[in-house]
Design a protein that fits this description.
Layout: H1 7-10, H2 15-33, H3 46-51, H4 58-61, E1 77-81, H5 92-100, E2 104-107, H6 118-135, E3 139-144, H7 146-157, E4 162-168, H8 182-189, E5 210-214, H9 223-227, E6 235-238, H10 250-261
Parallel strand pairs: 1-2, 1-3, 3-4, 4-5, 5-6
Helix pairs in contact: 2-8
Amino acid sequence: MAVMTDGAQSGGSGEGQTGSGAIAELTRRVALAREPAVTDAKGPRRRLFAAELSHLLEPIKRPFRSIRVTPAQQPKMVMLLPGFATHPVRMKYMAQQLEKAGHEVKRWGLGFNWGATTEKLEAVEKRLVAIHEDRGCSVVLVGWSLGGLFARELAKRHPEAVEKVITLGTPFSGDMRANNAWRIYQAVAGYSIDNPPVESAIAEKPPVPTIAIWSPRDGVISPRSACGKPHERDRAIALRCSHIGFVQTKESIEAVLGELDAR
């Protein structure tokens, strides 16, 4: 469970105690960022991690790209869930392409994704149920990285409201330390990945069609973690993009469009 340290919880009050609480919290988070690895799990090679920076040029490349968007056979209701430390705006380009095909796209409604908490999961859960009840249709959940873990858990809790789950570079299989961001995640989220505030068997497949899109060029998440084992998802699709590229590249967007039309 995440532990929050502040003046109110420590029983103190006043400016000095508030400052002491802030320093204690900062010290705790630094310790989480410096935590030694307790397993042999390793993330992707450094050169792949460095290659993620190439996507800073994405806005320049975009005008010269052509994505094949054909009208959807059966337009879907889609919810996009962003990755760790990202805002839904990072998935805006993907959303625009899905909408061109005729799908209706919804944001998750929570702004930046700073980590999994009980409150955030419950808020997205309410949004999912509301969309399902208001529109009378099930929703396709497309989750990027950490957003995919939210998607898988939501589908387990409300399979009647979810038509399909599509994960993009989501670490749902194997050791949670098999990535290059777990220490940063712990520091920002404020808890150890060994003791998350939301209890879930993340490798357990949701009771709806579940598609794992992964890439051997992912510089953040281990390909094995994002691909998963056969019993942990229904199908896996390999691409040749970076982790950031899952929401920007032509091949990834076309793969998602194809899955929305697949039965």
